[in-house]
Amino acid sequence: MKRFFLFALVISFLLFSTGCDQEDDIVPAAVTADFTANQFVIEEGGSIDFTDLSTGDPTSWNWAFEGGEPASSTEQNPTVSYAVAGTYEVSLTVTNGDAADTETKAAYIIVNQNATPFQELYDQGIDNYLGVFTPASSNVVMPGLTEHTFTGMDGPICFTGNQFSMFTRDGSSNNLLIFLQGGGFCSPLACEAVEEGIPLVPFGILSPADSQNPAANYDVGYVPYCDGSGMMGDNEVDSDGDGMNDRFFKGIQNLSASLDVIAQTYPAPGKIVLAGNSAGGFAVHAALPLVRKLYPDVRIEVINDSGVGILGPGGMQTLINYWNAGAFFPLSCTDCIGADGNLTDYHKYQLGQDPNIRMAYISSRQDATFAALIPGGGAAFEAQLIEAADELNAAFPDRFNSLIANGEDHTFIIRDFTFPVSNTSVRSWVNEMVSESGTWTSVID
Q: What is the distance between the alpha carbons of residues 346 and 193, in angstroms, rounded to a whole number?
């Protein structure tokens, strides 16, 4: 009996011990952080796609990118841009709810200096017309305001053959506003564009009398619009099939000649605000590489008012082909004209090329002018606009912001500079941008 009792006692002890050990052996599921990148050596302004390789089914990711834009991310597979040359560390912390792990890779990314922003575009010939044309006359319209006129069919001209002229206006500061006016587009199907440029009108951001206008005392270079091709065209077209060219898309010549006059008149500004509305807002991106060529080291603030480049699948490429404006889009950027027809990646490319520029979108949610041109109308335009603005802000949070108002309004910085948007106005928001006050941020009604 004693033996049976002892045997039972031992068995009970072993079973109890085993049960305790099984509970004690339950440990949190391990997680191990790891990652890779699609490239490790890039030039200034380039971007890198990071891919999470962590094991253990992580549910959250916290990245830190030394020298990157953005500097941190919680996405699983983020894209990061690097604007300044150097060698940079990347760190990833992952968690799965039970455990966490961190992987840090020192000297992981090498960013080489990019000596000349937009060099690929210059190699493609977009600067071929700089320094080529000289105004036939430059006449003082009123004190400080000069009209520069070009003549002849072989140079700057409106798309119908009308004469082209542009304006300069002296200010009292050392800053420069380059303003590109709008006025419609010509496509193979329809031509809705102004045939004569609108002279400089002192309204909105062009008003020298508005004490709250941040550019009131700037020198001004004003480029009217009458080329029908977003200031990008380099083509002549027979639109009616009679064997004679009757549309002269000379936008790149008009733009280049105007910028030459501006650079000669104001050779050493402290800062440049490059702004435009409608087709002129669209054209600020064509002008940007040319402005940088003429002013290699000056800070440039780019303001695109109601010309963000949303036209629907195939629409943008059709226009670019019709105008012969392909040189403005780098061959290396295969997504600069997106499959959706939008120019988001083109604008991202421009920000990536040059750390000394900042960029802004100003638009209404359902801009009636452009919403009428895409499938789905206002709702489709709004969805694509918000997506584009968010994508650019995520990629360049310190150098891109958007101001998006409710409604269907088209253009603000000349037509309605005091237009209220949320808790600010267009004028106040632009002032925060160009004054670099540190409070400039995206505002969406």
A: 24
Whether the per-residue pLDDT at 20 is higher than 80: the answer is no
Average pLDDT over residues 241-268: 97
Q: Is the pLDDT of residue 83 over 80?
A: yes
pTM of the model: 0.79
Average pLDDT, the chain: 92
Tell me the average pLDDT across 146-167: 96
Cα distances (angstroms) measured from residue 16 to each of 3, 6, 123:
20, 15, 80
